[in-house]
Write a structure and sequence with these properties.
By secondary structure, the chain is an alpha/beta fold. It is 36% helix and 13% strand. Residues 835-957 form the Disease resistance protein At4g27190-like leucine-rich repeats domain.
């Protein structure tokens, strides 16, 4: 190479020496070295071309990687411009490749050295350009990586206490998310109950990051649209928002982005049904889930939620803990604490309100005067502006404003009753209907049963109010209630409304009737539960439509002209008062539709002009001393509730009984049994012969002293055979004076109920009634050894079954010779004090039997040793709650000898297990081989021989609460102390 370079120098020197152009020595030297550099570079053409090809290959690789992102719609305009440059330079590299091949096709000749050198220079320069674009592409790639969506974007979330209701709700959602069968979960409850707090804590939970590749959070605004939701989702996915696309295209892009990912969508504040397929295409990914939070339960149903979680108000303990955390140190003062407790009570368990009020009271420090003033303002917030409360009121009022007119009126009516008061649903619907709040009730299609149809429509309104949490069901399903804050809001709304002024002072200890200025313009008055002994002589209330005076025990007389001006009155409730009679001015109540006189034990007389009440539909005289003859003129009644003694009080002959058959419009008839003697059978038969003539009956509640009376009704009543909507609550047999209490306390008011008391054997009419029965209760029955004696084929519609006493029963179901499923719709089975019960099921268990059973309760069965017979567990896929109490011979909950081939996922839905006072219990299951996939709570008390729990680090992963005794817990044997410590965090020990 050196000799070649020397020869080049010699040639150039020669060329310069003969040139006609005169040059300085410095210029000549510069030119010499410039030419030398060009030619020298030309000598390394192969090396330059090799480097260019390698760099171009690297550039193509990074361009391909970035273009992959283009298919995911994640690219900026600047990046697109870079890609265009890359594609242009790639074509230029291709041209250089062609030129290179042409040059290399010729042998080396000195005369071509200039072209050779120029090509080598072009290749070297192109290399620099390619390398520069590669470096720029590297930066672009890093930017794209940085623009990838965060798997979980942490959200600010209020801390929730361990074992609090909100914490338990999060844990329950987590358990649902782990269930492959559950795709969508609905979280619903009234404003301020903590739904958003639950969703935020769920989003931030460490398990969520492990379960899902990406979590998408969307808060749905009131003015939501598919475009807005797509925009929010695409921003979180960091998809390109600058390119125009329609709804379908955006859904495709979102779906394409998520199709390979396991994702969780969290939708907060959902107010109406959202078609998620239209929004995001919903890739067919079974591992991905949706959790939505809404004020409206119906929204959760409409969005096809597989499981619902109702977020209710906090318990007093949880509310206090939350308030303490918000207020901080001042609350520890012995002067402040009693006031703080009253403040928390006013917040009524609403986390949102506790949060806002807590912040307000935190500013008051330890100044007792400020705390007292704040409490007084809080109690009077409907008339005094209160910081914190007014903000929550705006949230709550939004729910109210979304209702239509008649639902608003029905909601406001609930404020007539005390806070947290349990209001009988049937009674409330009757008041709504009487007030005309169930619109179009008289214009329904079936004119035959207008009252029933109005009640059905009322149930729909009630359900709508429950759906948006403005009313809530009490623990007893037959009642609803309104919480304190919502009731105050309702009263404030009514006070601001023209034409619907309320005078509401229930249970306030009033001894005197309020002043005239308070009641003269009132449309509804509620003074129930006070200590009123007298009423005004004359109540001038032309606009009054409801008057509630019930449970004023000291009220023994109503002034003669008291009702004279109340011609618009529609509801009058006097039940539980001490009145002995009604004044003649009751005849002025020409619009009255509901009259409640029940539980007035001294009421013996009605005025003779009762016939003037031509609009009256509902009359309740249970627990009075009135007889049937005194109401005989009210033949247009649609609902009559009466005591059995009312038929017989004061009569000496059959003619004095009074005639039930005269009430030709009667749709609902309730006869409470307040007789314990069996001396009226002859008269009862006459009563029953009249009852069977009623052609419009849709509901009958009656106690039949013997099966023969029931047989008469079934054989002769036209409504039994023709009215498919006929409902009943029947009791056959005497049980002292407890019949009415049992019916009133039924948790299944809409079910057809049959109760057999102190009966014997089996009668064909029982089989016929059983076929239509939903809830069956058998008490102290003789002559049967198993429930199967009543004919399992007659129990296809049975949903609830209770067996009590019945000391000849040894097994509930005898499965011998059964080929088809049995009790396939039964949901609840309660067995209590069946002294000789040995087993629940005997013999083979056909597939499908007990397939819907969710609750099994066994109490005081001293001979019971075997709960789950061979093959029984496999038939219980829906069992959620198991309670075993005071069963002295139980040694194993799941007997090893009966379950030798038990599958590990047995009892897949069992959530709660309660074991109380089982002195011989040694084992729930022999080891930790079962998965317990849904078990969340166990309660164990007085089971001192139970030394091991069938749990380990790999099963019962959803267990969140263990209740028991400290001594029992400390005596348990553990193989893994670390696991014991883990479970101890779930314990509540006494």
């Amino acid at each position: 190479m050196d000799s070649f370079n020397n020869r080049i120098r010699m040639t150039l020197n020669k060329y310069i020496s003969v040139s006609p152009i005169r040059m300085t020595e410095e210029a000549a030297t510069a030119a010499l070295f410039k030419v030398y550099e060009i030619v020298a570079r030309g000598i390394d053409l192969k090396g330059n071309y090799k480097r260019l090809r390698q760099e171009a290959k690297k550039l193509k690789a990074i361009r391909d990687a970035i273009e992959t992102e283009i298919s995911k719609d994640r690219i900026t305009p600047a990046t697109r411009e870079w890609i265009a440059k890359v594609k242009m330079i790639e074509s230029e590299v291709k041209e250089l490749k062609t030129k290179y091949k042409n040059e290399m096709g010729h042998p080396w000749r000195l005369v071509r050295i200039w072209a050779y050198a120029r090509l080598s220079t072009d290749v070297a320069e192109k290399y620099n350009q390619v390398h520069s674009l590669w470096e720029e592409g590297n930066l672009k790639r890093e930017e794209l990586d940085a623009e990838l969506p965060e798997p979980v974007r942490k959200r600010h979330a209020p801390r929730i206490e361990e074992n609090s209701a909100l914490h338990m709700a999060v844990q329950e959602i987590l358990s649902f998310l782990e269930d492959e069968q559950i795709q969508r979960i609905g979280v619903w409850g009234t404003v301020g109950t903590g739904k958003t707090t639950i969703m935020q804590n769920l989003n931030n939970h460490e398990q969520i990051a492990k379960m899902f590749d990406i979590v998408i959070w969307v808060t749905v605004s009131k003015e939501w649209s598919i475009e807005k939701l797509q925009d929010a989702i695409m921003r979180q996915l960091k998809l390109d928002m600058e390119r125009f696309a329609d709804i379908e295209e955006n859904a495709r892009r979102i779906s394409e982005e998520l199709k390979e990912k396991k994702y969780l969508v969290l939708l907060d504040e959902v107010q109406e049904n959202i078609d998620l397929n239209a929004v995001m295409g919903i890739p067919n990914n079974q591992d991905s889930k949706v959790v939505l939070a809404s004020r409206n339960r119906c929204v959760c149903y409409e969005m096809e939620a597989d499981e619902l979680i109702n977020v209710k108000r906090l318990s007093p303990a949880d509310a206090w803990n939350m308030f303490q955390e918000k207020v901080g140190h001042p609350i520890s003062s012995p002067l402040i604490k009693p006031i703080a407790e009253q403040v928390v009570k006013e917040c009524d368990g609403l986390p949102l309100l506790i949060d806002r009020i807590g912040r307000t009271f935190r500013k008051k420090g330890k100044d007792v005067s400020l705390w007292r003033d704040g409490l007084n303002r809080l109690r009077r917030w409907e008339s005094v502006k209160t910081e914190g409360m007014d903000e929550v009121l705006d949230f709550l009022k939004f729910c109210y404003e979304e209702l239509d007119r008649n639902k608003k009126d029905c909601f406001l009516y609930g404020a007539l009753y005390p806070e947290e008061c349990e209001i009988y649903i049937d009674y409330l619907l009757e008041c709504w209907n009487a007030e005309g709040l169930i619109h179009d009730a008289d214009e329904l299609v079936d004119n035959t049963n207008v009252f029933r149809d109005a009640r059905d429509k009322g149930h729909a309104i009630l359900d709508a109010l429950i759906d948006v949490s403005l009313l809530e069901r009490s623990d007893e399903k037959k009642c609803v209630k309104m919480n304190k804050v919502l009731r105050k809001m309702a009263l404030k709304i009514s006070s601001q409304s023209n034409g619907s002024k309320f005078l509401v002072k229930p249970c306030e200890g009033l001894q005197d009737f309020p002043d005239r200025k308070e009641w003269e313009d009132a449309s509804r008055i509620s003074l129930m539960g006070n200590q009123l002994c007298t009423l005004p002589e004359f109540l001038h209330c032309h606009n009054l439509s409801t008057l509630l005076l019930q449970m004023n025990n000291g009220l023994i007389a109503i002034p003669e002209f008291f009702f004279e001006s109340m011609r618009s009155l529609r509801v009058l409730d006097l039940h539980g008062t001490g009145i002995e009679s009604l004044p003649s001015s009751i005849s002025y109540l020409i619009c009255l539709r509901g009259l409640y006189l029940n539980s007035c034990p001294h009421l013996i007389q009605l005025p003779p002009n009762m016939r003037a009440l031509e609009q009256l539909e509902v009359l309740d005289i249970r627990g009075t001393k009135l007889n049937l003859l005194q109401i005989g003129s009210l033949i247009w009644l649609k609902c009559l509730r009466i005591s059995l003694s009312s038929f017989f009080r004061g009569i000496r002959t059959q003619r004095q009984l009074g005639s039930i058959s005269a009430f030709v419009s009667l749709e609902e008839f309730c006869v409470d049994d307040d007789l314990s003697e069996q001396c009226w059978d002859e008269f009862l038969m006459i009563v029953m012969e009249e009852v069977v003539t009623l052609k419009k009956l849709t509901s009958l509640r009656f106690c039949f002293p013997t099966v023969d009376f029931l047989k008469l009704f079934v054989q002769r009543s036209p409504v039994w055979k023709k009215n498919s909507c006929f409902t009943f609550q029947f009791c056959v047999g005497y049980q002292g004076n407890t019949y009415s209490q049992i019916l009133e306390s039924s948790d299944y008011p809409s079910y057809n109920c049959l109760k057999l008391v102190n009966g014997e054997g089996m009668h064909p009419v029982i089989a016929e009634v059983l076929r239509m029965t939903h809830a069956f209760k058998l008490i102290n029955h003789k002559g049967v050894s198993t429930l199967s004696d009543f004919g399992v084929n007659n129990m296809e519609n049975m949903l609830v079954c209770s067996v009590e006493g019945c000391n000849e029963i040894r097994t509930i179901v005898c499965g011998d010779r059964m080929a088809s499923s049995v009790l396939e719709n039964l949901e609840v089975l309660n067995i209590n004090s069946v002294l000789k019960l040995r087993s629940i099921w005997q013999g083979s268990i056909p597939n499908g039997s007990l397939a819907q059973l969710t609750t099994l309760t066994l109490t005081k069965c001293p001979e019971l040793k075997k709960i789950f017979s061979n093959g029984m567990i496999q038939q219980l896929p829906e069992l959620q709650h198991l309670r075993v109490e005071e069963c002295n011979r139980i040694e194993e909950i799941i007997m090893e000898s009966e379950n030798l081939e038990l599958e590990v996922n047995a009892l897949p839905r069992l959530k709660t297990l309660v074991l109380i006072d089982l002195p011989r219990l040694r084992s729930i299951w022999i080891d930790d081989s079962l998965e317990w996939p849904s078990l969340q709570r166990i309660q164990i008390a007085t089971c001192h021989m139970l030394k091991r729990l069938p749990f380990s680090n790999t099963n019962a992963l959803k267990l969140r609460l263990i209740e028991g005794q400290q001594s029992w817990w400390e005596a348990l044997v553990w193989e893994d102390d670390a696991f014991k410590q883990n479970l101890h965090s779930f314990c509540i020990l006494s």
